Amino acid sequence: MGDSRPIPIVVCGRAEIVGRPVVEGLKPEYDVILFCLGSQATAAEVPYVLKGLAPPSQSSYIGSGNYASPPVAVVMGAAWDAADVELVHTAMRVAPGVPATKAPVILRNDTSVPAPQPPAPEYAAQLIRRIRETLGRLVREGEEQLTGPGEGVVTSTSDPISRGGGNGPTTDTFNTSMNKLN
């Protein structure tokens, strides 16, 4: 990702009141091409985006809608748990016509780290910081870190990055001020 084009990502949240400042706050480095309201919506919408298509029905329209490049990450907010991650992971894995190597890494907010509660503006600010730190680290470590399918955590900057393996979702623990995403 050595050029200056924004890195395409998907963000999954519970409310647009938090999503709007996150989408704007990640610019210009990251392009939130799709913002989804909930894991069910994310599981339904992301497979289309991975094929470069607009989902036929969208839960939100605050993302850019630029589906020319597939997202490198799906970032899920504090409301989502491991079952939600698995739902999205499975939807991407079984989507017809989407090679596994095209699947984005899935990141989930680490709720074990104290943070302001949504929809407080401070929640969006810490989320932006954590996403930037986590994705920035992954980009610096190489594009292979952003090749899915995988799952990770947006955590504090003192945490190490670890990567799991196997057939199911992997777990990445990232160093950022965002909460864990696994």
Short description:
By secondary structure, the protein is an alpha/beta fold.
Q: How does this structure look, described?
A:
With 182 residues, the chain is an alpha/beta fold. The protein has four helices and six strands, in the order E-H-E-H-E-H-E-H-E-E. It has a six-stranded parallel sheet with strand order 2-1-3-4-5-6, with helices on both faces. Helix 1 crosses helix 4 and helix 2 packs parallel to helix 3. The C terminus is likely disordered.
Rough shape?
A: globular
Secondary structure category: alpha/beta
Radius of gyration: 14 Å
Q: How many beta strands in the DSSP annotation?
A: 6
Query: Which strand-content bin applies to the residues?
Result: 15-25%
Outline the fold blueprint.
Layout: E1 7-13, H1 16-25, E2 30-37, H2 39-50, E3 73-76, H3 82-94, E4 105-109, H4 121-141, E5 150-154, E6 172-174
Parallel strand pairs: 1-2, 1-3, 3-4, 4-5, 5-6
Helix pairs in contact: 1-4, 2-3
List keywords for this structure.
disordered C terminus; alpha/beta; 6 strands; 182 residues; 6-stranded parallel sheet
